[in-house]
Specification:
With about 775 residues, this protein is of the alpha/beta class. The protein folds into 4 domains: about 5-215, Alpha Horseshoe (Serine Threonine Protein Phosphatase 5, Tetratricopeptide repeat); about 220-335, Serine Threonine Protein Phosphatase 5, Tetratricopeptide repeat (Alpha Horseshoe); about 375-550 and about 740-765, 3-Layer(aba) Sandwich (Rossmann fold); about 565-740, Rossmann fold (3-Layer(aba) Sandwich). Helices cover about 55% and strands about 5% of the residues. It has 33 helices and 13 strands. A 7-stranded parallel beta sheet has the order 3-2-1-4-5-6-7, with helices on one face. β1, α23 (about 415-425) and β2 form a beta-alpha-beta unit. The protein is globular, with a radius of gyration of 30 Å.
Length: about 775
């Protein structure tokens, strides 16, 4: 026997697997070696998770023994683990050719099809194998996976249960069963399956982790946090526990969540997923973050290699962070508007599309966004069809029109501030108002106020989307408005079930949602796109304004310093409080050129990101490229109490192509006029509507050059600026934006006509 091979055998018998691997490699490099020696090495590499090495050595083994079934099967397994799926399929076919009756290579080929989400091809293989070998639980489970991939969740559930009957300690089968039940919108049963698995295998880590994740997805973050803290009480150094706990408590304890995110990263510094979710948390909770958090998230993220082009979560978080920190060149390198949007839609990430708006440069970009939203909508509708909502058989007897509003922001949130006039001014003899919220935080004073004002407020934090759709369908509405789009904790996908005869969108998302089950999008003559191809829904046209400014967000107590800042300072101060996800190089260049046309002017940024050194550095570089020195820029790191800072701003410059909405209203309320650029799509026309309804249509530009001209001319007219400073608020009160009762009357007249026409068209009463 060769001494090197003898040494390898000895190392293996002593449990020194890594030493055995190196000795076997040395042996095989010196001579061809028998197939059995290759097999020993490959099985060791598989056990040790050295997949790249395994792919290299298995290829060498197959060259030496091209007809060896076991080596071909191992080579195919390594190719599969390396993501080289097509090569793996070809390799398994070669193995099957030599031994068509053997299970291993046929099953592995089926596993590759499952990896590729080709459920039909996988089902064909595993259905045959299960008929031939019904007592092998792994084959039952794999068939279940193939069925689940095709949306056949009921059949998949039966196969997973068959697998567990054969092997009750099959962890993967418990996980798959739970996932199939969750796909059927049966969260209680999905959790019960995990509990049963834990009863069979107490303390099993993967099952505990799955339970914590499922509790979070079910809106039961408190229970998830309790479970994770129980685990942590005996083991504080488990990275995934800190990671999951951080996600469970993100809304209730954002600062503590940051501590657990940091601890997870400390324990597992090479885990890129933990860095991504820490960065994502900071983005979601900027108001609760410190400057150090923002810079740390940016640093930790950019210290990693850029994400692969097919990594949906990675590309989303990277592009969001780079854009928000003004690192536009690197952001564009991650992917194009087309490629990223289609990737995110394929991964059901509708909310990521909002970050695409700032990248729009042409009509083809706008049409691409419509395509992406429609693609997401088609997928959501197909998923909804698998678990249909049952509508009540009998119509209700009430003669009142029943109107529903669905949003998880019916609380202390800007959505409620704009919706409040509709709740405050409705005729209870003609209308019934229902509200639906899935917010998972505590009930606040405004939620209680809305609940006490309207007829019915259904607050259901733990409902899944299908159950929420059924709840709404059971209420037999005449029309349902979704107000939140895909913002955090909203359930836009509920609209895929069309839980009311007429469905509409308003307020929360500045674009067509993409669901053809939504009939209308509420707009006004200024907001509506002049290009019909840029809206999926029919326009529900308000006669004056699509919003009104209630006293909840725009109270008189927000005091205005009467004297114009320019007269106090001796120079014009431009400024913005708009979110930096709307920023782009063209917009910053245009702002800088407006400053260049206004000698001595300053620019004030009022944003939480202003505490970040990376943000300040990248933004200043853009202005310096246009000849604006950094000392003319002022960065104020402000999160919530930003309104008072308008007292130091003479003119607000709007973001584009996505314009301000709430921020434009806020600036006007504080006596600060806004210059905007008008585009074709709805998200490019929000300020256009607001300014025209405030009598300031002359501040709306058609081109970046005109934007600069308008800003420079306005800056030179300090008499007008002073008059607006002290007179804008009264002008708003007297116009469509301030007439909240008239706004409500317009809305309810429009809804009455819409519902009546809809019933007439369908033959209803």
């Amino acid at each position: 026997m060769d001494p090197k091979f003898a040494d390898a055998q000895k190392a293996l018998s002593e449990g020194r697997k890594l030493d055995a691997v190196e000795l076997l490699k040395t042996y095989l490099q010196a001579k061809a070696g028998a197939a059995q020696v290759h097999a020993v090495l490959l099985n060791l590499l598989l056990e040790l998770g050295q997949h790249d090495e395994g792919a290299l050595w298995s290829e060498r083994a197959v060259r030496a023994a091209p007809k060896d079934y076991a080596l071909l099967n191992l080579h195919g397994a390594f190719l599969r683990l390396a993501g080289r799926y097509r090569e793996a399929l070809q390799t398994f076919d070669r193995a099957i050719k030599f031994r068509p009756g053997e299970i291993a290579a046929r099953a592995n080929k089926g596993h590759v099809y499952n990896d590729l989400k080709d459920g039909k091809a996988a089902e064909q293989i595993f259905a045959t194998l299960v008929r031939q070998h019904p007592r092998i639980g792994e084959l039952q489970r794999a068939l279940g996976v193939a069925l689940q991939t095709q949306g056949k969740n009921g059949e998949a559930e039966r196969r997973f249960r068959s697998a567990l009957a054969l092997n009750p300690r099959d962890i993967d089968a418990w996980l798959d069963l739970s996932a199939a039940l969750a796909e059927q919108s049966d969260m209680p049963a999905a959790l019960a399956a995990l509990d049963e698995g834990l009863a069979r295998i107490p303390g099993q880590v993967r099952l505990l982790k799955a339970k914590a994740v499922l509790l979070r997805h079910a809106g039961r973050e408190g229970e998830g946090a309790s479970l994770l803290r129980t685990i942590m009480s005996s083991r504080e150094d488990i990275a995934w526990v800190h990671h999951e706990l951080a996600r469970c408590i993100a809304n209730e304890e954002p600062r503590m969540s940051i501590r657990h995110h940091r601890r997870a990263i400390d324990l597992a510094p090479s885990n890129i997923e933990y860095r991504l979710f820490f960065a994502d948390h900071v983005l979601r909770h900027l108001a609760n973050c410190e400057a150090a958090d923002i810079d740390d998230a940016y640093r930790l993220l950019t210290a990693c290699p850029p994400p692969q082009k097919d990594n949906a979560i990675g590309t989303k978080v990277w592009t969001q962070w780079l854009t928000r920190c003004g690192d536009f060149d690197r952001s564009r390198e991650i992917g194009s508007l087309r490629d990223l949007g289609r990737l995110w839609v394929a991964d059901n990430m509708h909310s990521a599309l909002l970050d695409q708006f700032s990248r729009v440069e042409s009509r083809s970009d706008r049409l691409e966004l419509i395509h992406q939203h429609l693609s997401w909508g088609d997928g959501a509708i197909q998923r909804a069809k698998r678990n249909a909502v049952v509508h009540p058989a009998e119509p209700r007897s009430s003669a009142k029109l029943r109107i529903g509003f669905m949003s998880s922001d019916l609380r202390q949130h800007v959505v409620s501030y704009f919706a409040w006039p509709l709740f405050e001014h409705y005729d209870r003899s003609r209308f019934e108002l229902y509200a639906y919220s899935f917010y998972r935080g505590d009930k606040d004073a405004l939620q209680r106020r809305i609940s006490g004002t309207i007829d019915t407020f259904r607050w259901e934090p733990s409902l899944d989307a299908r159950s929420a759709a059924q709840l709404i369908a059971d209420d037999q509405l005449d029309i349902l408005f979704e107000l939140g789009g895909s913002t955090y904790m909203n359930k836009l996908e509920v609209m895929a079930w069309k839980p009311a005869p007429i469905c509409a969108s308003w307020l929360g998302y500045p674009h067509s949602a993409g669901l053809t089950t939504i009939d209308y999008l509420m707009v006004d003559p200024f907001l509506a796109s002049p290009d019909p191809a840029l809206m999926v829904e029919k326009p529900l046209m308000m006669p004056r304004s699509w919003i009104a400014m209630s006293e909840l967000a725009f109270p008189e107590r927000l005091s205005i310093t009467p004297e114009l800042p320019a007269r106090r300072n001796g120079f014009i101060s431009f400024g913005t409080a708009n979110s930096s996800y709307k920023y782009n190089p063209t917009m910053l260049r245009t702002w800088a050129r407006a400053m260049a046309r206004t000698p001595g002017s300053r620019f004030i940024f009022v944003r939480p990101e202003c505490g970040s050194a990376a943000f300040r550095r990248n933004i200043a570089a853009r202005f310096q490229a246009e000849g604006i020195a950094e000392d003319r820029l002022e960065f104020r790191a402000v999160s919530r109490a930003h309104m008072e800072h308008y007292n130091d701003i003479d003119i607000a410059l709007d973001t584009f192509p996505q314009t301000g909405g709430t921020t434009t209203c806020e600036a006007l309320w504080m006596g600060v006029p806004t210059v905007t650029l008008v585009g074709e799509a709805l998200f490019e026309r929000l300020s256009y509507s607001i300014l025209n309804n405030a009598g300031l249509g002359d501040l709306c530009a058609a081109t970046p050059e005109q934007f600069v001209d308008i800003a420079a001319a306005l800056a030179a007219d300090t008499e007008r600026l002073q008059a607006l400073r002290i007179g804008l608020r009264e002008r708003i009160r007297a116009g469509p934006l301030g007439q909240t009762r008239q706004f409500a009357e317009d809305f309810y007249d429009l809804i009455t006509r819409t519902v009546t026409d809809g019933h007439s068209a369908s033959g209803g009463g």
